[in-house]
Design brief:
The chain is an alpha+beta fold. The chain has helices spanning about 15-30, 45-60, 80-90, 105-115, 190-195, 200-215, 220-225, 230-245, 265-305, 305-320, 335-350, and strands at about 35-40, 65-70, 95-100, 120, 125-130, 135-140, 140-145, 150-155, 160-170, 175-190, 250-260. Strand 2, helix 3 (about 80-90) and strand 3 (about 95-100) form a beta-alpha-beta unit. The longest helix has about 45 residues, at about 265-305. About 20% of the residues are buried.
C-alpha cells in the first residue's frame, strides 16, 4: 500500500490543518491494513462514479474500518457528484475524502470532505456511536455528525422485523413425524446490546428460533399441535423472548403457519376420526334406546290404570294398518276375550300349585 501524498493545494490554513490531521490518522492506521484506499484522477463522470460506488460497496461488505477516497479532479458532472455524495452519506462505515482541486471547483470538493462526517437518521433508525473503538452513545433520529476516523456509527432499525423460519422436521411427544414452519415478529429494544453483544442479531435470532421450535414442539403431542396452536405459540414466544433479551431484542409474536403430515399419518388420523364417529353414533343410539324404554315404561303404567285406553290404542293400530297398502290380514280379537283367557290360565296355574 502506497503512502498518501500530502495535498499541495490547500486553499486556507484551516482546511490544510484538517487535511493534515486526517492524513496523519491514515498514516497511523496504514500498518493495520484496515483501510480501503482508491485514487481517482481526472474529471468526475458516470464511469468514475460507478467505480467509486462499487469500491465503496465492496469495502462495506468486507467491513473495513474506513474507506479513503483520494481525488485529484477539477470537478465534473453534477449528477455524478450527487450519486457519489448519496452513497457516502448512506455508507455504514466512515468515508474520508482527500481532495486536490484544480480550478474553481474547490468548494464542491470541500463539501465532499464535510459530507463524509454527516449522517441523517429516520424516525425508525438509531445510530450506535463508537469513539476510538469504545462505545460512546446512541443517537438519533435526525442529523448526526461524526468525526471521521475517530468515530464510527453503526445504524440500527427499530421497526418490527418479520422472520420466516424454514420448515423443520419435528418428532412430537407421541412419536409422530411432522414438518413445521413458523413466522416470528421481533424488534430491537436496545440498540447498544444488539450491536455489542452479538455479531449479527438477525442470523442469531433465526438460528435460535429454529432450534427452539423443534425443542418446544417435541414436548407436545400431535393433537395438541393441531388443536392448541395458541398455547404452543405463546410457549415458543416466551422462551425466545427470554433468551434474546440479552441481545436487546424483543420477540413480540410467534405464529405456526403449517403442520405438514405424511400420507401414512393422514390415513391413521382419518381412521381414528372414523372410529370416533362410530363410537359417538353407538353411544347416541344406546342413549336413545334407554330414553325410549323409560317412556314405554311410563306409558305401560298409564295404560294399566285405564283398561279402556288399551282398547282405544288397539283400535288406533287397526286403523293405521287398514290405511296402508299391504297384504296383511288382520283378525280383530276382543280385548275382553284375551283378558278372560289370561284369568283362566292364571287360575289353572294356581290349582296346580
Amino acid at each position: 500500500m502506497k503512502w498518501p501524498k500530502l495535498i499541495p493545494h490547500m486553499g486556507s490554513g484551516f482546511i490544510g490543518l484538517i487535511l493534515l490531521l486526517v492524513t496523519s490518522a491514515v498514516l497511523a492506521n496504514q500498518t493495520s491494513r484496515s483501510a480501503w484506499i482508491i485514487d481517482v484522477n481526472g474529471a468526475i463522470s458516470p464511469s468514475t462514479s460507478d467505480f467509486i460506488v462499487s469500491n465503496l460497496q465492496a469495502s462495506v461488505e468486507e467491513r473495513t474500518a474506513h474507506f479513503i477516497l483520494r481525488l485529484d479532479t477539477p470537478g465534473g458532472l453534477s449528477v455524478s457528484m450527487r450519486v457519489i455524495i448519496k452513497h457516502i452519506l448512506a455508507s455504514s462505515i466512515p468515508v474520508v475524502t482527500f481532495v486536490s482541486p484544480k480550478g474553481a471547483r474547490a468548494a464542491g470538493s470541500i463539501f465532499l470532505l464535510i459530507a463524509s462526517a454527516i449522517r441523517i437518521l429516520w424516525e425508525y433508525e438509531r445510530g450506535v456511536i463508537f469513539l476510538l473503538g469504545r462505545f460512546y452513545s446512541v443517537k438519533g433520529p435526525g442529523l448526526i455528525i461524526t468525526i471521521p476516523i475517530i468515530q464510527r456509527m453503526v445504524g440500527v432499525q427499530l421497526r418490527t422485523i418479520v422472520l420466516d423460519v424454514p420448515t423443520q422436521d419435528v418428532i412430537s411427544k407421541d412419536n409422530a413425524s411432522v414438518k413445521v414452519n413458523a413466522v416470528i415478529y421481533y424488534r430491537i429494544a436496545d440498540p447498544e446490546k444488539s450491536i455489542i453483544k452479538v455479531e449479527d442479531f438477525n442470523q442469531a435470532t433465526s438460528q435460535l428460533s429454529q432450534t427452539r421450535l423443534r425443542s418446544v414442539l417435541g414436548k407436545y403431542e400431535l393433537d395438541d399441535m393441531l388443536s392448541s396452536r395458541d398455547q404452543v405459540n405463546k410457549a415458543i414466544q416466551e422462551i425466545l423472548d427470554q433468551q434474546t433479551d440479552g441481545w436487546g431484542i424483543k420477540v413480540t409474536n410467534v405464529e405456526i403457519k403449517h403442520v405438514d403430515l405424511n400420507e401414512s399419518m393422514v390415513r391413521a388420523i382419518a381412521k381414528q376420526a372414523e372410529a370416533e364417529r362410530e363410537r359417538r353414533a353407538k353411544v347416541i343410539h344406546a342413549l336413545g334406546e334407554m330414553e325410549a324404554s323409560v317412556k314405554l315404561s311410563e306409558a305401560a303404567g298409564v295404560l294399566s290404570k285405564q283398561p279402556q285406553a288399551l282398547q282405544l290404542r288397539y283400535l288406533q293400530t287397526l286403523t293405521e294398518i287398514a290405511g296402508e297398502r299391504t297384504n296383511t290380514i288382520v283378525f280383530p280379537l276382543p280385548i275382553d276375550l284375551v283378558s278372560k283367557l289370561q284369568e283362566i290360565q292364571i287360575g289353572n296355574l294356581m290349582d296346580d300349585k
